[in-house]
Amino acid sequence: MLAARLHGIRDIRLDSLPDPKEDRPPAGHVRVRIRAVGLCGSDLHYYREGRIADAIIREPTVLGHEAAGEVAAVGDGVTRLKPGDAVALEPGIPCMKCEYCQGGRQNLCSHIFFMGGPGCDGALRELLDWPEQLVEKLPGGVDFDEGAMLEPLGVALHALGLSGFRAGESVAVLGVGSIGMCVIELARASGASKMVAVEPLSLRRQKAVDLGCCRALDPARKNWREEARKTLDGGADLVVECSGNPDAIASIGTVARCGGRAVIIGIPAEDAVSFNPHIWRRSELAVYNCRRSNRTLPRCIALIRTRCVNLKKLISHRIPIKEVKEAFRLADERAEDITKMIITL
Question: Which one, 52, 79, 171, 279, has least CB within 10 Å?
């Protein structure tokens, strides 16, 4: 089978790997023929830097964790799914034994296997065996591209849940990649009063306005923070940082209103970010950090079943896996016309 593996920094290769030896996956597992994989910012961190913090790629690794496909075979004991079902995958396998798993915070499991990272090959391959409990059937009318978008939607949903977002609040979204767009979609559907986006790429700024932001600002403008606060009548009730850019993280306190809240989703390339703690302290800014998602896949499927959100309109590019090198190159260079890239198999 074909698989896209990272061999080193900016060295992504299309390799031929052996098909599974057995006709069926192990007991309790589902064999999925992958059809669509979203290219995520964390994939690009591994591509550019070879690591995310202390998670270091040391050997050829199949990337990709935003995945959807169809069931090719099922193992013994699998009852919910059958061959031919269209499915989406939850990318993390928690241990279910540690204090975090037992406390319902499986995304914090220190023993988790997360597809597309060190020690756990990801979804940019034709066939993948995965535990049944982490595979969900897609509703009729939902295609594989939308199925792949459920993972970034889940991160956005988890982040808004952490922040305690309430209808009628104002929101500033810093960074309009796929997760930022999902945050805008969810906040709009949940009753945000006003939304402002901050994004360097003009097409993404326009996309933010199309999705419901009253204004989208270019961070190259010196006074963008003041403009954001003015547009939001004194600052945002909630700031959602989705870029990982150190300047954006440092600006959270100047965009939020006094007594406001913030949630940081973006992953910085650096190991340390500087900010003025007095701004955060004096305003009693409550800051949450979001790590991936946590058991959100069934809720995300409910959202797209009812069409509360439209994930199709977030996608700008569909590139076959045979052109994976070009896909990563375009994403790495932040091509102006890319909002979300799906790699098809």
Answer: 79
DSSP 8-class letter at 201: S
Alpha-carbon distance of 50 to 12, in angstroms, equals: 11
Name every residue whose Cβ is closer than 8 Å to that of residue 289 and which is 6 or more positions away in sequence. 263, 264
For the segment 270-276, the average pLDDT, to the nearest whole number, is: 90
> Count of CB atoms within 10 A of residue 75's CB?
17
Supply the Cα-derived Rg of the chain in whole angstroms: 20
Q: What number is the average pLDDT over the span 187-199?
A: 97
Give a yes or no: residue 162 inside a domain: yes
For residue 269, is it left (φ>0), alpha (ψ between -120 and 50) or beta?
alpha
Residues with Cβ within 8 Å of residue 103, at least 6 apart in sequence: none
The per-residue pLDDT for range 312-337, each reduced to its tens digit, is 999 999 999 999 999 999 998 876 67
On whether both 268 and 336 belong to a single domain, the answer is: no
- Reported as a single tens digit per residue, the pLDDT across 153-185 is 999 999 999 999 999 999 999 999 999 999 999
Is residue 16 predicted with pLDDT exceeding 70? yes
CA–CA separation, 178 and 211 (whole Å): 12
pLDDT digits over 277-309, tens only? 999 999 999 999 999 999 999 999 999 998 889
d(CA 232, CA 277): 23
Q: Is residue 302 part of a domain?
A: no
Q: How many structural domains compose the chain?
A: 2
Going from the C-alpha of 173 to that of each of 144, 230, 237, the distances in angstroms are 27, 15, 11
d(CA 28, CA 73): 11
CB of 214 within 8 A of CB of 233?
A: no
* Domain boundary, last residue among 289, 304, 324: 289
| Residue 125 per-residue DSSP state | B
